[in-house]
Design brief:
homodimer, about 65% helix, about 575 residues, mainly alpha, Transcription Regulator spoIIAA, about 5% strand, 26 helices, six-stranded mixed β-sheet, 2 domains
Chain lengths: ~575, ~575
């Protein structure tokens, strides 16, 4: 089915039944109510005019619905990607200027092209370079950075900075400008949101409301806070009498047709950030999509996801938006409200479009402080100490990657954090494989099993050293092996045979192959022969192809036991 | 023996016998004769005054003799390191100026400090990041670059350039300045050297000369060429009548005491090149040292080698020299001439010092063309197509690393080549491990062995999928495993158990651990349980430590056979 191959929507539209419609319609309504304040807030977080958030919630949703492989993922502006956008475009123009919004379009366009290219070339595995600890450290630190950045809106002061130190410094120096009424609105919203988060769902269930409905009501709390505070500000005209900052006038109308500008220097400068935003957005989104799909026995195709998210970002660039990706909370609400297919996303897009046409006056009195409070509560949930504790217990190297990534994000910035994290996790992996575990093994009496002489009571022969190497052999650890075997032979002067047991060796590269030849040569000079045992099939094919086995002083045995038996006989009958 | 631990010289001096002396003295004499023209030529190659080559052949040799772990390695200026020096300091000042020589001192100092630091922190394994194919491509391309750069001296023209294209272009535009007499000297020397290389040793042996003596005579050919052409130039005053370029006046006197200048910006700018020079010099030198030591059943300590070479470079910086390392041809001559200990190097240093005091007038008429010819013949021997052919046959990824490194050296420059090579070989390794080989296995009838169902006739049960994974599981391949297992289970709807056979799994990092938990969860949702078999001891300890095994839906079996037996029973008696 070639059409469904490139256009997953064709598949689910063909099977679309009347039963699917009510769920999709209800989900669209609920997601729209949740998405309106979120999209305004995330645009604000990115330093863009509020309507940009609404624009990013129309066409991109339809583009993903057509090309994405998840049935229920809800795409749109999200916190971490908005922060990365703010960081990337902040260097080009001051927030609020035309150049700033223009840079956001270019960023979305490049990010979309990058994802499309990865998807079409089936290079999605590149996203795997972001390890779980690096992602965890990155997201947690980004959440702290976002929350700290939003505090200024809760306090009603001006402050900005690309890292935590700059931000806190700027806030401290403006602290006395704090606006009491704004704090009342912001802090009040925070308390309300934290309480509903913690207790509303439980309280409602105790009153007899069903579990799903109670959960949805809990998720609706931000909407309640936004509506209530907007009404209070409008009624008391707090923006005039008390200086409370509000969203203000939003131009009404459908998302405009925009073209990302063709300024090549800006393109070049934004390209690395666009690639990072694309990859981070993809990694976050695809794990949400996997989780949702597993619950309904559906499947996610990572390369198709790249195409879907790429198309969504390109659509954002052509309709006055900014970078988008799949959101976690929003997708969960979508599923809980009954969404069956991406038609729910299409309905959501239509509802948001209607809002941009006729509802913008209703957003006029919305206070910045309440939007900031909803962001803070949303991102604090992203802080993940569990992974740190787990990594610390299981693997210190991974824990270090997590901590370094987080510290780099907090003290330098988001891009530095990602780059440091990836570099460190690759270095940590190379380090781990650079000193392979070597075990001298002996026979478990009465069996054909061979075990580590240090851990078990086993039989050995002084003239045969059977060494199991628990790692693939490649350039990073080849010399280590050479030294280790030279040391072993020096320590066992009676040795006449070294049997290298290769059950854990999945590959041998050219460097290691030459090192093995050198080891063999050096052993021969000392009157010792090198044998191999338990070489895996594909590896054996390759070694045979280059004639390595003929050049070897010793033989190749199928099993350690065969090697020991045969070499022992050789001694008795030389 | 703590003294011998940090000062290997203390060890061999204590055991020094009267028998060792004649060999060390004769070797010192022969190496000195070989080293004088070489050191002048390599200084010229680095763009430095000729005496700098002599200075780099005095104190550095003594420093290595004290701290190095090889008994017979001969240290001094070598071709590839001289090329790297020319490339690094060429950006700071024009060749021949004081700033240029000053930059060479700083480069030697930083390179020495870097090596000392690696050695004292026992970080020698970092040099392993240079894989054999990358080194081979780097050396071959450097040799081509050096030979091309020396051609101008053979032709008697001016030309310079940091890469092959620039060099050839510069030579082409100056081709008509070529000097016929210079070409006669240069080309004549080249023909003589190539002939002696190919046939002299064999011709002498046919005349009854012993093998070793004939070999040494072959190695002495450059000295014969240098002496003969110098005499011809002096006798016919070719530098005046024909414009043949000669070495000219060399200030007589011992190596001066110099201090690397404290210009921090220059230090910062030279630091990356210094680190690369240090690592490349170390890698080249340590493999020579290993080869020499193996022949005499001696041992090389790589960390001590770092200290020895580091001390040699620091000594070069304080005595008017430039970066040095262990040379291959020179060390072979040293051994062949009978050197027993590093005392031979100390004697060589004394002889070179005597030459700087009284012999410099003898170098006055030495033509540049003959020095260039000796360099060309020496470096062409470094071009290594064998490794390329071998890598091409064995592993295309390694062959690609080699070719890309060589092309980057030729078209961009030496530093770009090294960096590209290391990055590519790491990327190639990550790529190889990113798609682990997964084999669905079945029982070989009548045995306890389990083999790939695609390669062997084996017995399987529809409700149990036994999957062997031939790779460590870590962030780069964790998601691949997740997809592969999801696909397998989709293709085998009758499956109720998945047994992951971990005999090839040497490590599982935090990312892969979380992925395994996710796989288990997804499988459970589909009514399938996940079991592990043949988990290695150290890995098992770690998994147990974080309670992973209790959370697993299935069990952990010692062997695949135990798993199959037990799960089959479970089906019969659920």
């Amino acid at each position: 089915m070639p059409l469904a191959r490139y256009l997953p929507a064709a598949q689910w539209l063909r099977g679309y039944g009347r039963d699917d419609l009510p769920g999709d319609l209800i989900a669209a309504g609920i997601v729209t109510i949740m998405l309106i304040p979120q999209s305004l807030a995330y645009a604000m977080l990115a330093g863009l005019p509020p309507q940009v958030g609404l624009y990013a919630s129309v066409l991109p949703l339809i583009a993903y619905a057509a090309f994405g492989s998840s049935r229920t993922l809800a795409v749109g502006p999200v916190a971490v990607v908005s922060l990365m956008t703010a960081s990337a475009i902040g260097e080009f123009a001051a927030p609020g200027t035309a150049g700033h919004a223009e840079a956001a379009l270019i960023l979305a366009f490049l990010s979309g092209l990058f994802l499309l290219a990865l998807g079409l070339m089936r290079l999605g595995f590149l996203a795997n370079l972001l390890s779980h600890p690096v992602i965890s450290g990155f997201i947690s630190a980004s959440a702290v950075l976002i929350a700290a950045g939003q505090l200024k809106h809760v306090l009603g002061i001006e402050a900005s900075g690309g890292n935590l130190i700059a931000l806190l410094g700027a806030m401290a120096s403006h602290a006395r400008d704090a606006n009491a009424t704004t704090i009342a609105i912001g802090a009040g919203s925070l308390v309300f949101l934290v309480w509903t988060n913690a207790s509303l769902s439980r309280a409602l269930q105790r009153l007899g409301v069903s579990g799903t409905a109670a959960d949805l009501a809990g998720k609706a709390a931000p909407v309640i806070a936004v509506v209530a505070t907007t009404i209070v500000v409008a009624a008391l005209r707090l923006h005039e009498t008390q200086g409370v900052k509000i969203v203000g006038e939003i131009p009404a109308g459908l998302p405009p047709l925009t073209l990302p500008g063709m300024q090549w220097r800006v393109w070049l400068d934004l390209a690395p950030a666009a690639a990072l935003i694309g990859v981070v957005g993809f990694v976050e989104s695809v794990s949400v999509a996997h989780a949702l799909a597993a619950k309904r026995r559906q499947k996610i195709d990572p390369d198709q996801e790249l195409v879907g998210l790429g198309a969504a970002n390109v659509a954002a660039a052509f309709s006055g938006g900014f970078p988008v990706t799949g959101g976690f909370a929003r997708s969960v609400v979508n599923v809980a409200a009954g969404a069956n297919t991406q038609l729910a996303a299409v309905f959501t897009a239509v509802l948001i479009a209607i809002a941009t046409l006729w509802l913008t006056p209703a957003f006029y009195f919305m206070p910045h402080a309440v939007l900031a409070a909803t962001i803070i509560v949303a991102v604090l949930r992203l802080i993940d100490l569990r992974t740190l504790a787990h990594a610390w217990k299981y693997d210190r190297g991974d824990a270090l990657s997590l901590v370094v990534t987080a510290l780099a994000v907090l003290t330098v910035g988001v891009e530095a954090g990602i780059v440091a994290g990836v570099a460190l996790s690759i270095a940590a992996y190379l380090w781990r494989t650079s000193r392979p575990h070597l075990a001298l093994v002996g026979q478990v009496p009465g069996t054909e099993h061979y075990r580590n002489v240090l851990r078990h009571r086993v039989l050995t022969r002084p003239e045969i050293l059977a060494v199991r190497v628990d790692e693939s052999l490649y350039f990073v650890n080849a010399r280590y092996l050479e030294n280790a075997i030279a040391t072993l032979v020096t320590e066992h002067p009676q040795a006449r045979h070294v049997v290298l047991i290769c059950s854990g060796v999945n590959l041998i590269d050219v460097s290691a192959l030459e090192t093995l030849a050198a080891i063999d040569e050096n052993l021969q000079a000392a009157g010792v022969r090198l044998h191999l045992a338990e070489v895996k099939g594909p590896l054996m094919d390759r070694l045979a192809r280059v004639g390595f086995l003929e050049g070897l002083s010793g033989r190749v045995f199928l099993s350690t036991h065969a090697a020991m038996e045969s070499l022992a006989l050789e001694k008795d009958h030389p």
